[in-house]
Amino acid sequence: MRSYEPRGEDEAAEIVRDAAGRAERLRLIGGDTKAAIGRPPHDEATLSARGLSGITLYEPAEMVVGARAGTPLAEVRDLLAGRGQMLPFEPVDHRALLGSSGEPTIGAVAAINNSGPRRINAGAARDSLIGVRFVNGRGEVIKSGGRVMKNVTGLDLVKLMAGSWGTLGFLTEVIFKVLPVQERVLTLVLEGLDDARAVEALCAALGSPFELTGAAHLPAGIADARALTLMRIEGFSASLDYRAGEIRRLLKRFGPVTLVEGEAAGTLWTAVRDASFFAGSGEAVWRLSTAPTHGPAVAAAVGRNVSARWFYDWGGGLIWVATDVGEDAGASAIRAVLRPIGGHATLLRAPEPVRAVVPVFEPMAEPLMRVSQGLKTAHDPAGIFNPGRMYAGI
Asked: Does the pLDDT at position 153 exceed 60?
């Protein structure tokens, strides 16, 4: 298979123009750590962002960082950490779950809207993404957004590119707003709650004024013999002591709350972020999104229909589910449960034959599918970028 690795934006644009002229289908990659997500590839060549690397903008006082799309995510994190700053949305590292290697890139963070546990407090990656440069399917270089947040009139290409999985354009540069690293991080833990009581406790804490930056529940057997309900708060030490005391009082009816910090807590939140509890298991893995209050009922209903285990993030609104692979990895049962209450399911890990027959991303209603097809045609008229990765024909 042919492989392209441009060293500059103009070279990337020329490659795309030539490929479009030949209708050569391209698989867009960065560190190639997430190749196993999505429908099986239908490409004839790869177009890699690895040669587009380096920080292009960093203004600590303005809390803005920009980098070429192929820049390793670790390089951006290290730069920010040196000035006491961080990406707000805690991007997931999929390598353990998918058994992949390579280095995650900052462009891929934007391309898949990669957001972890802190999303409940800081928003998703797309909420911090303020500028992009990309090459469209005609080989034209497009710039959208810039260095500051601002209102947008018309089609917001920055937000459109976030979560498009490389189907609309080849990202060459991204710009994010960043936040200060907090002085102290503290995790409050309730033990032994069933799913419904745990989510009730998480919702009570999230509805308080004490600003949780993480809210997860691990049923018994996921990380420990006992169920663990985790709540994370961050900030100045004096503020944390007060907030922890108030949360303890608020949740008194749910049982004793213990406090954990340091490496032990950090390791636990990393496992929640990366769903590494399911790494190497051989099961299919789903991400289900629904209203937090529906989370326990959704998980229980899924568990009655397929062999499954699960845990919760985002206060119960995100359910990571591991199922037996079978013929459809539990797709029929999962989507039947979600359909009447709202929500969506993404098949994050499964063998290629399953991903060939099961909709990996939540099926769209016909009107939305027509809009998506129209956007694909407008930005990639020859259909050369990641064809069919999200949906057949897009």
From this structure: no
CA distance 213 to 206: 9
pLDDT for residue 393: 84
Residue-level length of the chain: 394
Q: In the prediction, which pLDDT does 346 show?
A: 98
Q: Is the pLDDT of residue 149 over 80?
A: no
Contact 323, 335 (CB under 8 A): no
Contact criterion met (CB below 8 Å) for 59 and 147: yes
- Give the CA distances from residue 130 to residues 127, 145, 146, 239, 314, in Å, rounded to whole numbers and listed in that order: 8, 6, 6, 31, 24
Inter-residue contact 89 to 122 (CB < 8 Å): yes
Contact 107, 121 (CB under 8 A): no
Whether 106 shows a pLDDT value over 70: the answer reads yes
By DSSP bridging, strand 45-48 and strand 2-4 are: parallel
Mean pLDDT of 33-38: 96
Residues 6+ apart with CB under 8 A from 196: 296
Decide the pairing of beta strands 26-29 and 45-48: parallel
Structural domains in the chain plus CATH codes:
2-180 (3.30.465.10), 184-274 (3.30.70.260), 276-350 (3.30.70.2740)
Report pLDDT digits (tens) over 48-88: 999 999 999 999 999 999 999 999 999 999 999 999 999 99
Q: Rounded distance, CA 249 to CA 227, Å?
A: 21
Backbone φ, ψ for residue 337 (5° rounding): -70, -40
Q: Answer for the pair 198, 227: CB distance below 8 angstroms, yes or no.
A: yes
Rounded Cα gap, residues 328 and 347, in angstroms: 10
Q: Is the pTM of this model over 0.85?
A: yes
Q: Is the dihedral of CA 157, 162, 166, 171 positive or negative?
A: positive
Provide the 3-class DSSP secondary structure of residue 174. Answer: strand
Identify which of 325, 212, 225, 232 has the alpha carbon closest to the alpha carbon of residue 272: 232
Any idea which residue has 């797309």 for tokens?
A: 126
Q: Which two tokens stand for residue 319?
A: 């359910």
- The residue assigned the tokens 């949360």 is 247
| Distance, CA of 55 to chain centre | 22
Strands 85-86 and 179-180 turn out to be: antiparallel
Helix-helix angle 195-206:295-305, to 10 degrees: 160
